[in-house]
Specification:
Layout (H helix, E strand, L loop, with lengths): L12 H8 L6 E2 L6 E4 L1 H15 L2 H6 L4 H22 L2 E2 L7
Helix pairs in contact: 1-4, 2-4
The chain binds zinc ion (ZN).
Length: 99
């Protein structure tokens, strides 16, 4: 679970999802009100898994799975994945540069 690097407060699932869907780079800890950022390592891992999920359709198409099943399964996997993100992300108390 996402944990504030400043005060050690463990963010709840709802709290983390709400922060993520504000689409701001700075996430605010509800306990100590300091800015937190998603660590570069977490961002990289999240993008890699996101790309892998989007590539699931390749073997499914080659096995002749109908498109509606592929689209449905992709949507379900993404919803499940978004639900897991609060358990996967690690926070940083300073903004890390990507490169
Ligand atoms: Zn905090």
């Amino acid at each position: 679970m996402a944990t504030c690097k400043h005060c050690g407060h463990k963010w709840g699932w709802k709290e983390t999802i709400a922060q993520l869907f504000s689409f701001k780079r700075k996430l605010k800890c509800t306990n100590c009100h300091t800015n937190q950022y998603i660590s570069v390592k977490s961002r990289n891992q999240l993008s890699i898994v996101g790309i892998l999920i989007s590539l699931i359709f390749v073997p499914l198409i080659s096995f002749g799975v109908p498109l509606r099943y592929i689209i449905t399964s992709e949507i379900l996997i993404y919803v499940f994945y978004i639900g897991l993100i609060p358990f996967l992300i690690k926070l940083s108390d300073q903004e890390e540069v990507f490169w």
